[in-house]
Specification:
There is one protein chain. By secondary structure, the chain is α/β, with parallel strands linked by helices. It is 34% helix and 16% strand. It folds into two domains: 37-190, 3-Layer(aba) Sandwich (Collagenase (Catalytic Domain)); 193-260, no CATH class. It contains six helices and ten strands; from the N terminus they run H-E-H-H-E-H-E-E-E-E-H-E-E-E-E-H. The strands form three sheets. Strands 1, 2, 3, 4, 5 and 6 form a six-stranded mixed β-sheet that branches. A two-stranded parallel sheet has the order 7-10. The structure holds zinc ion. Zinc ion binds next to helix 5.
């Protein structure tokens, strides 16, 4: 057997790619949570159902529609004493004209392969103008939606600074779409989910005001719970980012609190 046969070469190349990705994403992770410069967030719309109405909706989007996300980060960072005035800058990128890779199966291997695949996909369809170390890419597949069928889950990957937010192409959904986008951006910088298996906020980690008396109803949503607790086991979706907060636990996860 030749030492540098095709098989060995292939394994070596695969290992090399894995090492490169690992090294690259480690860098992305470290650079993204120092909060010493504004993080660039680019929103890339996709037409997920191929419908003309969806294309028209995407064409109607402007940067202004995503401005509340930057406002939310500015307001909350300020509340936690972050010195950087604008923790993130949000811009609207070009529409991506390629379908997302299909969702992974449940096995660990298929999830691992998918996370590599999605990063490769993102790199191919949104090439770097500058460095990706300071850029979070959020892909938003828009669709009309039908018959109350729920949308696929959105997600944010800390490794790779990527988010995918499945959204309805409806003007009245814009504010709530922004809540989901902000939630997924939080994941990319290290925040964890704070809701239970029924989708209700976990007490106290998923509450905006866990010390409030009386406790219920809560007035605002903790962004990583994504919902406002009304009683135990009951919650509602906030109308907009105006009724969302970054609570202490999330603030500490994303590096907004000074080490005590
Ligand atoms: Zn989440």
């Amino acid at each position: 057997m030749k030492l540098f046969g095709f098989r060995n070469l292939r394994v070596a190349i695969l290992l090399g790619v894995l090492l490169l990705v690992l090294n690259y994403t480690l860098g992305q992770r470290l650079h993204s949570t120092t909060w010493s410069d504004p993080l660039e967030v680019v929103i890339y719309p996709l037409n997920a159902d191929g419908k003309l109405e969806t294309t028209a909706y995407i064409r109607s989007l402007t940067q202004r529609h995503f401005e509340p996300i930057a406002t939310f980060f500015r307001r909350e960072a300020h509340r936690w004493g972050v010195i950087e005035a604008n923790p993130i800058r949000v811009t609207l990128g070009a529409t991506v004209d390629a379908p997302l890779p299909p969702e992974p199966g449940n096995s660990l291997l298929s999830r691992l392969l998918w996370s590599l695949r999605i990063r490769y996909w993102a790199w191919r369809h949104t090439p770097d103008a500058a460095s990706n170390f300071q850029r979070i890419r959020v892909f938003v597949p828009y669709q009309q939606g039908s018959d109350g069928k729920p949308l696929a889950h959105s997600l944010g990957l800390q490794k790779g600074l990527l988010g995918i937010v499945n959204a309805y192409a409806l003007p009245r959904q814009r504010r709530q779409n922004n809540v989901v986008i902000a939630h997924e951006i939080m994941h990319t910088v290290g925040a964890l989910d704070r809701y239970d298996s029924n989708g209700n906020p976990i007490y106290p980690d998923g509450y905006a005001e866990p010390e409030r008396k009386p406790l219920y109803p809560q007035r605002r949503a903790a962004i990583m719970a994504g919902r406002i607790a009304l009683t135990t086991g009951q919650s509602k979706m906030p109308r907009s980012l105006k009724s969302c907060v970054v609570n202490r636990l999330t603030a500490s996860e994303i590096g907004w609190l000074r080490k005590e």
